[in-house]
Amino acid sequence: MLKELTSQRLEQPCVEVLNPATQESLGWLAADSLEQVESKIVAATLAQPKWAAQTAKYRSKLLRKWFDLIEQHQQDLALILTMEQGKPLSEALSEVAYGASFVEWFAEEAKRAYGVTIPATFDGKSIRTIKQPIGVCASITPWNFPVAMLTRKLAPALSAGCAMISKPAVNTPLCAIALRHLALEAGIDGELLPVVISEQASDVGLKFCTHPSIRKLSFTGSTAVGKQLMQQSSQQVQRVSMELGGNAPFIVFGDADINEAVAGAIVCKFRNAGQTCVCANRFYIHDSVYDEFAQKLHAAMSKLSLGAGVDGHDIGPLIDEKALQKVDQLVHAATLAGAELVCGGKVASDIGTLYYQPTLLSNVAHDNPVMKVEQFGPIAALCRFSDVDEAIHFANDTEFGLASYFFTQDLTLAEYVSNKLQYGIVGINEGIISTEVAPFGGVKHSGVGREGSALGLDEYLETKYIAVGGLR
């Protein structure tokens, strides 16, 4: 499938797709000009009313066919994902399955966009609501989960009767093209889901935000870019969904099962080389179990292997040189501020140019620079705490509020802490929290809106109130 998605370099502007594991070229894709983006928006605008007029059952059947095709091509899609993004093939297979789950879920939810009948306040009147598609939508998705981030937006949009024009990250466009190819094979009109390939991210984003035909923008990415897009979208009162940055705390209380906590930390922190918005970013460990946790985490980290994702390793490369430099600078700044380097802390240059060693930092102060930013790398920074309220204070002391985690065997403590944490998602004794059946999203500077679950469909629907009189 990979050869079918790329072309030889043409005279027109093109985008080269690189394998971050080897820096080898995977091929060239023609880049869209702003005029071509305009044409795709116009085509989607013309196609959307016909799609919206179809029955929910009809849309559901086509989405189900799309889901079946994604599952049938799971191996091919996973290989494409690993080649252009770098994550281990096992993780890529899981991501494809996760991405497909949104298509399956919203194929079913398409038939459940219910309105309601409201008891009238006067005789001879009726009051009811119906839900209608918002119209043409646009999405901007990141490189770290190029399959799941797209299907999590595109599936509910199509399910609701919308069209969606998508701009994947320029590092990872092949997954989006492959998914669209399978959608067309399932019978979905290609003009309903055009893909924009462009290195002009800010120009395309501005066009999405200001084009009068686009009524909704869904964005996953940094908080800074999200704020800019929200400002631009405000000029036409465009609806937005924003899944922005995170700074997830991982708290281990004194009564926790330490082996389970360490296992949760490994899958939560080092999945995709730490390049996830919901991965553990700050570890707060109770004094009474700090040494045991640190020792066992170190032992578990020492077993992680680095290498190309197609070769069965645990950790692949970072996405590019800029990401690598950011991680290296964070570790350097952390040690300058007093953190103790237990292991890692270097570029694994013997493996490749973009690999960074799994890094454990101990006795890290809460105000250390490494605790204040979204790391997006394989860094585990451990900080001590002495009581419950101190841990809660540390966890909430950030502008972000996407995901949080804690481990305890005390049910009363679990209830108390989960209610106090200022996050859209809380994982208790669990390091993996993402699922299509639950709402995904954050509070504070981590975004607005929810994806997945029944709430995800509502993000693409307008509620219309209909009042009827003269019914005596």
Automatic annotation (TrEMBL):
<feature type="active site">
    <location>
        <position position="243"/>
    </location>
</feature>
<dbReference type="InterPro" id="IPR029510">
    <property type="entry name" value="Ald_DH_CS_GLU"/>
</dbReference>
<dbReference type="Pfam" id="PF00171">
    <property type="entry name" value="Aldedh"/>
</dbReference>
<dbReference type="InterPro" id="IPR015590">
    <property type="entry name" value="Aldehyde_DH_dom"/>
</dbReference>
<dbReference type="InterPro" id="IPR016161">
    <property type="entry name" value="Ald_DH/histidinol_DH"/>
</dbReference>
<feature type="domain" description="Aldehyde dehydrogenase">
    <location>
        <begin position="14"/>
        <end position="466"/>
    </location>
</feature>
<dbReference type="InterPro" id="IPR016160">
    <property type="entry name" value="Ald_DH_CS_CYS"/>
</dbReference>
<dbReference type="InterPro" id="IPR016162">
    <property type="entry name" value="Ald_DH_N"/>
</dbReference>
<dbReference type="InterPro" id="IPR016163">
    <property type="entry name" value="Ald_DH_C"/>
</dbReference>
<dbReference type="InterPro" id="IPR050740">
    <property type="entry name" value="Aldehyde_DH_Superfamily"/>
</dbReference>
<protein>
    <submittedName>
        <fullName>NAD-dependent succinate-semialdehyde dehydrogenase</fullName>
    </submittedName>
</protein>
<keyword id="KW-0560">Oxidoreductase</keyword>
<comment type="similarity">
    <text>Belongs to the aldehyde dehydrogenase family.</text>
</comment>
